[in-house]
């Protein structure tokens, strides 16, 4: 009976709500979501940024569901999920080309693919792969796009590991640090998630501004 109730609560989980996911699946759920969001095109809607931050927060015992996660296990799950997911996405893109993307009818996914391709062309492989980690949807589609565009495997692997570790561990430790220093911080979780999303777009915005300035200076020269 208890097993049935536990299974029912997991089936009723809201996959778009970070705290609901963590209450149902814990650290394992973080690894699975990281893998799906970065490796499978169907995972583009998953809450990667907010999940990592909230999971770090819950390592301090804060949160509405009374969940407390193990920080070392969480860091391992987040990193492994993010890195293996990206590598799988790249290999799928290299093998299937644009076929997987072409089958999707999601306008949001196609827009993300366009932005991913623009990143690769404008900033080069290394910078684009790292920047994409911090942009929702783009971090999902850039990996198969990199494979389809024949980005060298060694180059992709190196920079997806660098970007993946900075993104996954940085957001998780950020949540943990804030939860450790601010009492009842979970009351402000929604505004903080909004700030995280805004901050995640900052690197891309700065690069766009720099490229525009460089283009203007080139025209003047």
Explain what this protein looks like in three dimensions.
Helix content is 77%, strand content 0%. With 221 residues, the chain is an all-alpha fold. Helix 2 runs parallel beside helix 4, helix 3 (48-58) packs across helix 9 (189-200) and helix 4 (71-96) packs across helix 7. Residues 1-12 have low confidence and may be disordered.
How would you describe this structure in keywords?
globular, disordered N terminus, mainly alpha, 77% helix
Helix count, DSSP H or I runs of 4 or more residues: 10
**Main beta sheet:** none
- The string of secondary-structure elements, in order, is HHHHHHHHHH
Alpha carbon gap, first and last residue: 76 Å
* Beta strand count: 0
Q: What does the overall shape look like?
A: globular
Kindly summarize this structure in a few lines.
77% of the residues lie in helices and 0% in strands. It is an all-alpha fold and 221 residues long.
Topology at a glance:
Layout: H1 2-11, H2 18-39, H3 48-58, H4 71-96, H5 99-103, H6 107-132, H7 138-148, H8 153-181, H9 189-200, H10 202-220
Helix pairs in contact: 2-3, 2-4, 3-8, 3-9, 4-7, 4-8, 6-7, 6-8
